[in-house]
Amino acid sequence: MSRLSWIIPACLFAIGIPRAQVPSATQESLRVHLSDIGDVECVGSVRVRQRPRIRCSGPDGRMLIDLPLGETVGYLKHDPRGIEIQARSLKGLPDPLLIAVVASPHGSTTNWQLAVLGLLEGKLKVLRKDPFELWSSDGIFIGDLGSGRGVGVATWEFLWDDCHLCPSRYGVHFFPWQATLKLLPSRPSTDLRTTGKFDDGISAIRSLGLPYSNTLYEFKRLEGFW
């Protein structure tokens, strides 16, 4: 959890400062063509007091994926969670690659869960057993990881210390695509850590020579949750 998530909300609510209005993004639909299946429709939905779900069905209406994603109950009373699904074409990964993101606000930060799906051996499958989970101070990149690491996913997160509101060191984790096993690993293959402390994740990974962008910022429907 973010270093701010348990401090700021209580302070704001105590003095009556309203939280910024969070947009509604509770329903999402994406239609994509998969070569061995045909036209597939993926629908993401957020319902009060239920865990959001991603459901993908084939051209005959048969359910191909029914995936829970995100937190079960919204942290805030009005439950303003959001969901978005995008299709990508990235060399070295199943094409198209489906990326689903659920945002669950926690007052001063947001919990982000991201799932990656793709066509493998004629079937639509989740490419990692568990979703990637991050907070707003963290980040994620999907693509060529550089330096001989191959294609895959990199995540970065601040590392807790005794001063939760101060600049922090960051850790970076690499999850290269395992072509033989046809999956993204549950555990990182390698890790890096910054020696200095930084106010934000992008500055931290730049200090390590990593040119990544944060994939979460490409999900524009969820911009209000950043």
Polypeptide structure, described:
The radius of gyration is 18 Å and the shape is globular. It is 6% helix and 38% strand. The chain has one domain (8-225). Strands 5, 6, 7, 8 and 9 form a five-stranded antiparallel beta sheet that branches. It has a four-stranded antiparallel beta sheet with strand order 1-2-3-4, with no helix packed on it. Strands 10-11-12-13 form a four-stranded antiparallel beta sheet. The relative contact order is 0.16. With 226 residues, it is mainly beta. The two termini are 15 Å apart.
Helix/strand layout:
Elements lengths: L7 H8 L11 E8 L3 E8 L7 E5 L5 E6 L13 E7 L8 E9 L4 E11 L2 E4 L5 E4 L3 E6 L6 E8 L11 E7 L13 E4 L7 H6 L20
Antiparallel strand pairs: 1-2, 2-3, 3-4, 5-6, 6-7, 7-8, 7-9, 10-11, 11-12, 12-13
Summarize the structure.
This protein has helices at residues 8-15, 201-206; strands spanning 27-34, 38-45, 53-57, 63-68, 82-88, 97-105, 110-120, 123-126, 132-135, 139-144, 151-158, 170-176, 190-193.
Helix content: under 10%
Biggest β-sheet description:
5 strands, antiparallel
Number of structural domains: 1
Q: Which structural category fits the helices and strands?
A: mainly beta
Number of beta strands? 13
Radius of gyration (Å)? 18 Å
Mean pLDDT rating: 86
The string of secondary-structure elements, in order, is HEEEEEEEEEEEEEH
Helical stretch tally: 2
